[in-house]
Amino acid sequence: MMRVDQNSKLDNALSKGALSILGAAVPLFAEKGFGAVSINDIALRANTSKANIFHHFKSKEGLYIAVMKSACGHLAEVLDKVEHVDNDSPRKKLEAFFTLHLQSLQAHPQSARLIQHELLENESQRGKHLAEEVFSKHFTRLVELVREGQSQDWLRKDCDTSLMAFVLVATNIFFFESRSVLQHLPEVNFAESPDRYNSAVFKLLLNGFQKES
Amino acid sequence: MMRVDQNSKLDNALSKGALSILGAAVPLFAEKGFGAVSINDIALRANTSKANIFHHFKSKEGLYIAVMKSACGHLAEVLDKVEHVDNDSPRKKLEAFFTLHLQSLQAHPQSARLIQHELLENESQRGKHLAEEVFSKHFTRLVELVREGQSQDWLRKDCDTSLMAFVLVATNIFFFESRSVLQHLPEVNFAESPDRYNSAVFKLLLNGFQKES
DNA sequence: GTCTATAGGCCGATAGAC
DNA sequence: GTCTATCGGCCTATAGAC
């Protein structure tokens, strides 16, 4: 028999109580990282008790991995979306991916932060493989799009395919990462309008920095 | 009277004991972040006692701020270096900065990680202003170099100066950040050779993605 | 300056009532 | 499923001998 609830497949098999704990844990882990968050912090935010958290999750690490899985699921959804704009030109497809990529970071900032924390901490492997999986899934898809552009003689072939893909993800992710700092810099006027930033960078990367000859 | 020791100005006024504590604290804070490192961890690594750490630093946060100051100092040194290649062409200067910037990240990976941790945690302000200061000092210098290139009719003027500078720092920092992941990706062959990556990206950004017309 | 000993509190995790 | 009460341990920080 199917379960009665209609939760997304990402949160499957979790009871209402467990979901509210998960919901309280996500922003805390996203902001402070695993080591700086206590079960008590989460219990207070979820309006429940420490013991109840250990009833729903076998350990602090178990809860953290559940949080990471949910975050990775959210960020993986952008891949499904971009598959649906599949009958356009390579340029349209690449630009759509680039735009959706940044939009997905903005739509799920906590998920993006969780993955950043995981990539930053070289150590305990907790959920690093999950983070790497999501990262490489996006990256591989982007490499395909660039390769398509190259084979159709639109993008230059004398440059490494994966290098171009890398520059695209790098600018988006670093924009997301550094937005709070960028807003304080007087030289920068694109920090408050991600969409304008996004299209300007895309144009810049395509045409290059140098003056037209 | 001058002090007798010849420590760099970054570590000034710190005794030998304090310096060895600082040296033990840096890699721990860099890898795990503030919240996940205990004074005892640091004491064990420094072959001393907890109490002695509190003798040299007034609190855990005081020690952390000393660590951050040292890290920011190391990364600021690249600015001094690039000032010394000042009588060249705008292109040479920009490329020198770009290369030195990545090299300084590689030379002081722990400093770079500390700053990343600080930028990632929106909260307690501990040393965030220090991190932002270093970031914006680099960025402002880079904006100047790009503007110079624009005014000499080498770089395009129809694109935001700070946006070009942003793309340059973004690619370098994100390369540093994601190197451990990049090494696992079969499509990527530039992860192991930062210098080759560096010059290839510089060329790519100057010329753009699109095929020469 | 460096140590041992210890205070007082919070940690993750468990037991057991309801 | 949710709670209170509690465990042993580790936490930051201090006191005081040397």
Keyphrases for this structure?
homodimer; 213 residues; mainly alpha; Tetracycline Repressor, domain 2; 68% helix; disordered N terminus; DNA-binding
Task: Explain this structure.
2 copies of one chain form a homodimer. Chain A is mainly α. The first copy, chain A, has one domain: Tetracycline Repressor, domain 2 (Orthogonal Bundle). In chain A, 68% of the residues lie in helices and 0% in strands. The first copy, chain A, has 9 helices and no strands. In chain A, helix 6 packs across helix 7. At the A-B interface, helix 6, helix 7, helix 8 and helix 9 of A face helix 6, helix 7, helix 8 and helix 9 of B. Chain A binds a DNA duplex (18 and 18 nucleotides) through helix 3.
Regions of chain A with pLDDT < 50 over 5+ consecutive residues?
1-7
Mean pLDDT of chain A: 91
Regarding quaternary structure, what we see is homodimer
Amino- and carboxy-terminal Cα gap of chain A: 68 Å
Helix content of chain A: 55-70%
Largest sheet of chain A: none
Mind telling me the CATH superfamily name of chain A?
Tetracycline Repressor, domain 2
| Radius of gyration from the alpha-carbon trace of chain A, in angstroms | 20 Å
Largest interface: A-B, 65 and 65 residues
How many domains of chain A? The number is 1
CATH topology of chain A: Tetracycline Repressor, domain 2
Principal-axes shape call of chain A: elongated
Structural class of chain A: mainly alpha
CATH class of chain A: Mainly Alpha
